[in-house]
Amino acid sequence: MTTAIGADTARKPATMAQALGRALRDAMAADPSVHVLGEDVGTLGGVFRITDGLAKEFGEDRCTDTPLAEAGILGTAVGMAMYGLRPVVEMQFDAFAYPSFEQLISHVSRMRNRTRGAMPMPITVRVPYGGGIGGVEHHSDSSEIYYMATPGLHVVAPATVADAYGLLRAAIASDDPVIFLEPKRLYWSKADWSADAPEQVPPIGRAVVRRPATGGRRSATLISYGPSVPVCLEAAEAARAEGWDLEVVDLRSLVPFDDDTVCASVRRTGRAVVVHEATGFGGPGGEIAARVTERCFHHLEAPVLRVAGFDIPYPPPMLERHHLPGVDRVLDAVARLQWESEWTEGSAV
Amino acid sequence: MTVLEQPGAYRPTPPPGWQPRVEAGPLLPDAEPYRLLGTAAAAGISPDLLTRLHRELVRGRRYNTQATALTRQGRLAVYPSSTGQEACQVAAGLVLEDRDWLFPSYRDTLAAVVRGLDPVDALTLLRGDWHSGYDPHAHRVAPLCTPLATQLPHAVGLAHAARLKGDDVVALALVGDGGTSEGDFHEALNFAAVWHAPVVFLVQNNGFAISVPLAKQTAAPSLAHKAVGYGMPGRLVDGNDVAAVHQVLAEAVRRARGGGGPTLVEAVTYRIEAHTNADDATRYRPDSEVEAWRAHDPIALLEDAMRDRRLLDDEGVQAARESAERLAADLRTRMHQDAVLDPMELFEHVYADRTSQLREQAAQLRAELDAEAGDSGKGE
Questions:
Q1: How far is B164 from chain A (nearest CA, A)?
Q2: How far is it, in rounded angstroms, from Cα A104 to Cα A87?
Q3: Does B351 contact A152 at a Cβ distance shorter than 8 Å?
Q4: Which of these, A211, A206, A203, A139, lies nearest to A169 by C-alpha position?
Q5: In chain B, what residues touch A154 (CB-CB under 8 Å)?
Q6: In what residue span(s) does the Transketolase-like pyrimidine-binding domain sit (chain A) (predicted)?
Q7: In whole angstroms, what is the distance from residue B353 CA to residue B190 CA?
Q8: What are B227-265's pLDDT values in tens digits?
Q9: N vs C: which end of chain A shows fewer Cβ within 10 Å?
Q10: Domains in chain A and their CATH numbers?
């Protein structure tokens, strides 16, 4: 078999983009009802080349270049799902998905509920999302909160090459609609990976402890997902020098939310910082902090802190490094977890 | 100045990307709405079809008046009547084969009932006991769609999927004149034409989008003309002439099934009642206009034509009315029964499997319900 990545079980370096493409290919090979559609997904193979080769291997009926119309792409996917297909839709960039929101919110998310289970919507919506690639305006939004606020949708975001493959396979296999957020800036991140290891298909809704705390005295949990997970891992390493023992939880799935894994970690460490690129006000971190506080209040040594993007429209590319939460901002938050020290009015979060 | 800007420099002619993909002429609708009843061509329509159309028209009118009455009795939260538009509803409900799909909007309950849906199930959305009272697969009727025109891309996708699977299934999608202004109308027609999907779009132009008249909705020569821009045929038909609507739709369905692609049909009709029972139509249209359209009533048009051909007599009219009364009586009886609802079903169909969060919330509601039952038990 000749594919971009070998089908053998040996672990080889692969990028997240390759793993995503492989997941699509394997899903299409395994199930003839899986159809890929979107703008530029066919001949071009997608602007990020995730769908490269699919039209050639499976034909243009299975990997279809559509007219440039996001509502039409998702709306026709609804009809295809009604007739028993499993559409995988590509929204070229995060902010390009907005025209499709009416279809998503009025139909995709509620068709199962409206029809009392008679009409499930096994649609996967792939959204290349987030910043850090120097994109111009409308190419770097973190739109997860819009999706999270809509009942009926699953919302997942991989942070590793293996999860990119596994979660995408799980999303396509799900009988419910899944918003699959692909962290653009991790597309070219590499890891040793084998497509055939079974542990690489995690169920949707399960978080994972990416880096365990080792039982040190000053410990805390960094809660994150998608593009901020590598930032947290780096921060956790750097924090060792400051005497901090940090655990990193990778949520993988925002909806459903894995309260158990998150709260078990916070109960172990006693402190928590939520880290994401999306804006802080009304952002995912507020929900996560509230959940943790409600469930772990008596275990907490300090308030749950948030390290988020600023509450601004996504900045122009030459300024985005000031907006995106980096290692230093995470470490600053960790330093503020020594609650006995102080909390002064106006200290920024 | 670059080389290409210098006088006499070589300027290649670009390839002809501007050229039309298809000839526009054959796609254009007739200048006047197509009519069949009262013309010589009407002699060719089968008596059986006319009798069936008549019976459904009379039953449909009664369904509309009964449902409207149920809103006044508080049994329906709202009812958008299709009185005056029954010819479109009946033709749409009868023109499809069993394996085909109908995509109705909220005003198209009657089309769904004519297609075979239980009249009470078709009103579930409007009564408010659930969002859709039927299994869409049972009669191949998509859920009544409240957002405007968003059901049109669904019809395209379903028809496209059926064709990919090798099934000769046609989708018929209904939309109003106001819906043609929505972006989803454009995207659906464009997708359908590009994909050559077996879809028929029926625009019921009933004159008003709630209160906004057609002249404020579009500057197009007709709504049927919009078809040409997408590369599909547009047909203009008298929406109160049930035989004409049925024939035009049947041709479009045949064409779609045979691989000929989509068609846009504009049926010119009139909404005799207000937008819903909550609307005051006297604020935006004169009685004289309504009366003129009453004189062009779809049932009267058909009865006149059938009596001319001696296909209908007083007895036949009476039989149709009795059938309609039975429908209305059944509807009254069943709609006056209180709906039996299980609040726990609120959590049942959000996802295939309940999330842990929904399990917690279901437990909370269960406890609240048990407490309520306990309280009411103490009171007895």
A1: 7
A2: 14
A3: yes
A4: A203
A5: 351
A6: 14-189
A7: 36
A8: 999 999 999 999 999 999 999 999 999 999 999 999 999
A9: N
A10: 13-191 (3.40.50.970), 206-334 (3.40.50.920)
